[in-house]
Amino acid sequence: MAVVERVTRTVEGAGATLTYDVHGDPAEAGADNPALLLVGSPMEASGFTTLASHFADRVVVTYDPRGTGRSPRTDGAEETTPQEHADDLRRVIEDLGAGPVELFGSSGGAVNGLALVAVRPDLVRTFVAHEPPVPAVLPDGPHALAACEDVHRTYLRSGMGPAMAKFIAVTGRTGPFPENWADEPAPDPAAFGLPTEDDGRRDDPLLGQNMRACTGYRPDFEALAAAARSTRIVLAVGKESEGQLCARAAAATAARLGLEPVVFPSHHADFLGGEFGQQGEPEAFAATLREVLAAG
Question: Which UniProt keywords apply (predicted)?
Answer without folding.
Answer: Hydrolase
